[in-house]
Amino acid sequence: QVVLQLDKISHAYKNGDENLQILHNADFTLNHGEIVALIAPSGTGKSTLLHIAGLLEKPQKGEIIIQDRKSSRLNDRERTQLRLNSIGFVYQFHHLLAEFTALENVLIPQLMARGSKTKAVNIGRDWLKKFGLGHRFDHYPGKLSGGEKQRVAIARALVNSPKILLADEPTGNLDEKNSEHVFNLLLQVVRSEGLTALIVTHNHCLATKMDRIVTLHEGKIIPCHL
Ligand code: ADP
Ligand code: ADP
């Protein structure tokens, strides 16, 4: 079952006189339950691809189909709704709000999407526990380690139960040991929740733990064999 499909996507940036063709008739399919690694050199367009796949940026050409819905047929409000319901984002930097506790940070998407606060609190606690943070609910980000902050950010991305996780070097700012620990936890949770994920990484060792690896080459998304 196809969860996300990119159909003949083209996207370019203008840099003065130069035309930076990031994607050129690129096709890509994410099947239900798949975890795919995206590896490509800096500046080739990995972040652009994730933003396009995640409906944060509109491609200049092509169609994005998420759970059978063609995004080009949606208005802005519908597109935002589809994104909020279907996609979780994790970035290299945690982007936690310093003045809120770990639990409050995780609750923000829940409170935006749903009504009941009690229910949201329980769901938020459950997600923090899945990431080994049952003892950190009331800690502020300033009191958490780098690995813990990133785990809170991942829990926040998943709290609304999106079908798809898009992660841009989710452990890229951690040291090797922490990176491996947090990454393993991320993969374990994605698998046990039956989620589908596209994860950018520079780490070949981590990439080989995923179901398949793709790269960007001449504007296309192609299989990559390490
Ligand atoms: P990666 O994530 O692989 O490093 P990006 O998607 O961030 O690549 O960027 C790809 C290329 O497009 C880079 O050369 C970057 O400088 C350029 N770029 C990204 N966003 C813009 C933009 N909004 N306007 C112009 N150029 C951009
Ligand atoms: P730290 O608190 O050292 O910055 P984390 O917050 O990522 O690291 O990790 C929290 C807990 O996970 C700590 O008890 C740490 O010892 C443990 N841990 C870290 N890396 C690993 C690993 N690779 N395997 C198992 N446990 C780990």
TrEMBL record:
Keywords: ATP-binding, Cell inner membrane, Cell membrane, Membrane, Nucleotide-binding, Transport. Residues 4-226 form the ABC transporter domain. InterPro entries: AAA+_ATPase (IPR003593), ABC_transporter-like_ATP-bd (IPR003439), ABC_transporter-like_CS (IPR017871), ABC_transpr_LolD-like (IPR015854), MacB-like_ATP-bd (IPR017911), P-loop_NTPase (IPR027417). One of its GO terms (cellular component) is plasma membrane. SMART domains: AAA. It comes from the Bacteria. The keyword Nucleotide-binding applies. GO terms for biological process: lipoprotein localization to outer membrane; protein localization to outer membrane. It holds the Pfam family ABC_tran. Signal peptide: none annotated. GO terms for molecular function: ATP binding; ATP hydrolysis activity; transmembrane transporter activity. The keyword Cell wall biogenesis/degradation does not apply. Belongs to the ABC transporter superfamily. Macrolide exporter (TC 3.A.1.122) family. PANTHER family: IMPORT ATP-BINDING PROTEIN, LIPOPROTEIN-RELEASING SYSTEM ATP-BINDING PROTEIN LOLD. This is ABC transporter. It comes from Commensalibacter melissae.
